[in-house]
Amino acid sequence: MAGTADFLTDADLTRIERLMEALDRSGVDYMKVDFGELQLTLGKGAPLAPRTPPVSAPAPAPAAAVRAAPAPAPAPAPTASGEVIAAPLMGRYYAKPEQGAAPFVQVGDMVTKDTTICLIEVMKTFTSVPAGMAGRVVEVLVADEAVVEYGQPLFRIEKA
Amino acid sequence: MAIQRVLIANRGEIAVRIIRACRALGIETVQVVSDADRDSLAARLADRTLCIGPAESAKSYLQIETLLMAASVTGCDAVHPGYGFLSESADFARRCAEEKLTFVGPTPDNITRMGNKIEARRVALAAGVPVLPGSEKVASANEALAKAREIGAPVMLKAAAGGGGRGMKIVHDLGKLAETFQAASAEAKAAFGDGSMYVERYVAKARHVEVQILADSHGTVLHLGERDCSSQRRHQKMVEEAPAPQLSDTLRQGLQQAAVALARAIDYVGAGTVEFLVDAEREGFYFLEVNTRIQVEHPVTEMITGIDLVQEQFRVANGERLSFSQQDIRFTGHAIEARVNAESPAQGFRPTPGRITGWTPPEGPGIRVDSHCYEGYRVPIFYDSMIAKLIVHGRDRAEALAMMEGALAGFEIGGIETTIPFVQRIVTDAAFARGDVSTVLVDRLMAS
Q1: For an interface test with A, which of B7, B35, B59, B356 has the most A Cβ atoms less than 10 Å from its Cβ?
Q2: In which pathway does it act (chain B) (predicted)?
Q3: What is the CATH number of domain A83-159?
Q4: Under an 8 A CB cutoff, do A123 and B355 touch?
Q5: What are the residues facing B290 on neighbouring strands?
Q6: What CATH number labels B206-447?
Q7: Which of B55, B145, B323, B385 has the fewest CB atoms within 10 Å around its CB?
């Protein structure tokens, strides 16, 4: 682990700091990121990774959270209720392509990474939201035409 | 119909400042936040908070349509843009109007005209406001000399295509202008492939003085006096004060009248600031630009006038007439503001974001702290580094300076480095204490 920080540029550290902040705010315990040469596992005190230290902590801290892992760490077990798809933007959530149509997805449906799961409208501009992962829809968390905030959980997916 | 509920399209201390003004006026507040500002003080103080996007401003605070959507779904009838971000976006002001939202700021036309620096200069000239004397391109040393004689020494020769100081020469003795011109022009030709030059008045010891304007939509334009903001590092103000020290009455009145004339010339509405460069040695002043928004340093004006500028912005936006006249505005005592940034003066003002582990701001009569910070707050890495404005109001400048010294010494911030040690050097500097303020001061302190 010695020399971990030697090949990290300031830009890398900024990116990692952002990830740590995002993780800190989220309800998620782990985050695995693959930068190609560098693979990171960030965690919040669950068994695998040590507690995420504050970013302003002195030098040894990053080495604890940032692992240059030639052998990737084993994937943490997903939480019982599956993965969350969060709203990528603030706006009005539409479960259906148009009035009277069937919803894009329902509980029990299988989705792929590219399956459109809903629309979000911002001032009459509609953005389609892809699932981003393959799996089965286990829960729809938002009512049709509700206003959703950025980052608000929309669906729970059991990963395939 | 008076404003009932406002969307605050900003963050940090100014968002908190706007919420406080709204509480005093009985206006409800909706605070939009980026993902990085969910736990901000403004988010906690507002009646409602909505997360509109990720930390990057370009995907959150700068997204016009998202902001309009947020205003629409929360039932807002107005938008306050604060300063920075979209506050000087004519497009944003126009879109607000199209969506029947009151933009708490000047008209889109005001913003457009003053945002274009060439147009602003033209308007200033037409209104009889002095602009920095300068020439169009000059092709030869003779032409340059003729212009320089009109302007008066010292002059600055600048490369028309220039930048970064190359092809830029100061001429004190016009007898040597021809010689200097050849050298500068050759340097410009080598550097930029274009040897054409222009001549401008050189102000060796400049001061930055600005006048606060307040205008209603019924044609009344008032000034609330001036502020000196000469203590700047790379055009970032560090210390501001009102009134400006060591100005003759003639110069002070000249500045105030020029600012009012300029605002009248464009039918300005709302709070605005007309910035001038003051030549301390020649007693001259020149128009720089107009900031069509509330200014960071507005509190020093509030302290000496007792007028709440943000509340006035809302009243003007409601279409009300200003409730006071120029004669009603009284200037009492002296106010100084020091900006506190999360930066390390010892390390070239590197930003120092991170967790604030201790926060004990100074208190007492005449001391005001405008801030969004608290113990445990994490200064995000994504936005500007200002964490507080410390404002003091004394009976005179000497008292205000003493108060500022004491207040800075008593401002305890734990966990992150701040610019307090550097602003302490400014306010305790002997020349600054004498009122000998200029843009040279910070450079001198940086060098020593």
Answers
A1: B35
A2: Lipid metabolism; malonyl-CoA biosynthesis; malonyl-CoA from acetyl-CoA: step 1/1
A3: 2.40.50.100
A4: no
A5: B274
A6: 3.30.470.20
A7: B323
